[in-house]
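Internal tracking record. Fields below are filled automatically when a chain is submitted to the structure queue. Please do not edit lines marked as system-generated. If the sequence contains nonstandard residues, flag them in the REMARKS field before resubmitting.
Queue: standard
Priority: normal
Entity type: single polypeptide chain
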Amino acid sequence: MDATVWLTIAAVVALGLAITAGVLLVRVFAARRLLLDAGIPLRDKALFWVAVIYTVSPVDLLPDPVYLDDIGVLLLALRSLHAAAAAVRPAAAGVAAEPAVAKKAGTA
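SYSTEM-GENERATED OUTPUT FOLLOWS
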């Protein structure tokens, strides 16, 4: 393989990592409103902040040119945060929806 092939492979890998990092950055900023939500357990909020600190810290499981461990830790923390929000929100929506159903049944 000549240098052009290796350069092309490196460019494709770098582009893939850049796209993944961009998507991850958008999800991190979207998670901000979940972090401000009072119904989300503190454990899930703390897990997210620990993942952010791990991502920016110089201590890694894999060497820094390979960001797979950082991306994986952040994705797991975001998944946990979104799962906690999904567990809290349907309960709140169900409580709010019950009186409306009771009013409808009483008037019919």
